[in-house]
Amino acid sequence: MAARALGGPGDALDELSRNFTYGALGAGNGSLSRAWYRRNQIHLFGVFLAILGNLVISISLNIQKYSHLRLARQQHPRPIFKSVLWWGGVALMAVGETGNFAAYGFAPVTLIAPLGCMSVTGSAFISAVFLKENLRASDLLGMTLAFAGSYLLVNFAPNITQAISARTIQCYFVGWQFLIYVILEILIFCILLYFYKRKGMKHIVILLTLVALLASLTVISVKAVSGMITFSVTDKMQLTYPIFYIMFIIMIASCVFQVKFLNQATRLYNTAIVVPVNHVFFTTSAIITGIIFYKEFLGAAFLTIFIYILGCLLSFLGVFLVTRNREKELLPQSYIDFGNIPGKQTLDKIQPDPNGLSYGTLPDGSDSTQSQSGEKKEA
């Protein structure tokens, strides 16, 4: 009682214990039952925001892609930032990311983070419908696996409700599990940064691991900021606590450096490789963060954990199938326009010969390089 009167550690532990509430198993409490819906209303609202946000991001990416293609067809293309359509896509991107941000305030990290597969699969479907891109059999299989994995995630993610207050975040920060995790993460980050900066090693695994390590800080801070804003709206104001602004600064800084390393990866490697690998690394980092920092699997049964992992693996496989070889299919076929050559009848656009060293052939079938060498000999 004395500890409670003084606001000691007893109060903090009591508050943490009240934050974790699991639905009791019993009749009518199964998946998709009425009791299940009642118990998971807040989580389902977060899932709805996350899925809606990812679909809006998919639409945004396709709008921006369409604006680039339309400008490329123009004889005198203007800068992309002068395109109203492109800015509309950017605005939709902001709306989608806002939906993802808000989702973390209503549902666990381990539930929201894997749903990022909806953005990849949704983008493939939208591009096939509106941009008339090919919808392959692997795309349909990947979408099916991603939807099946998402269904398992929604049903078997941790059934845990947390009230994210400033005091809760402060208590999590001093936990020994998180302190050990942060120390290990800093050591790994410094080692990888040394190889990246000093040794010039820019392997995709190194770059995307750096992104994933920063993503863990992003997820912690996004969940904290979003949760404290939600708590301020529904219960008690939390925005006056310094921890809120510390988390906000961590969120912005980690996002900026994430974008830096991710851009480096996309410049050096094929997008069809970067997207699935980054999704797997980011989701894995977010899940570990949810388990260690927010203790979201506390008291979960082994079967629940197993099916949850299966759902993650299905979503990973779905993203891989959707992005596999897609970049190669989108590459335009190059050509070389020779124009008018005096004394020669040439085609308007002569395609490169893939089986030889020449840049094409003349209409009579003679090789252009051979004719050039012959002219040199005659000279």
Automatic annotation (TrEMBL):
Disordered: annotated segments: 344-379
InterPro entries listed in its UniProt record: EmrE-like, Mg_trans_NIPA
Keyword Transmembrane helix found: yes
Parts of the chain that traverse the membrane: 42-63, 84-106, 112-131, 140-158, 178-196, 203-222, 242-261, 273-294, 300-322
Keyword hit for Protease: no
Membrane topology: Multi-pass membrane protein
Main location: membrane
SUPFAM superfamilies referenced in this protein's UniProt entry, alphabetically: Multidrug resistance efflux transporter EmrE (SSF103481)
Keywords: Membrane, Transmembrane, Transmembrane helix
Single GO MF descriptor: magnesium ion transmembrane transporter activity
Subcellular location(s) of the protein: Membrane
Single GO cellular component term: membrane
Family per record: Belongs to the NIPA family.
PANTHER family listed in its UniProt record: NIPA-LIKE PROTEIN 2 (PTHR12570:SF16), PTHR12570
Protein name: NIPA like domain containing 2
Organism: Phyllostomus discolor (pale spear-nosed bat)
Name of the gene: NIPAL2
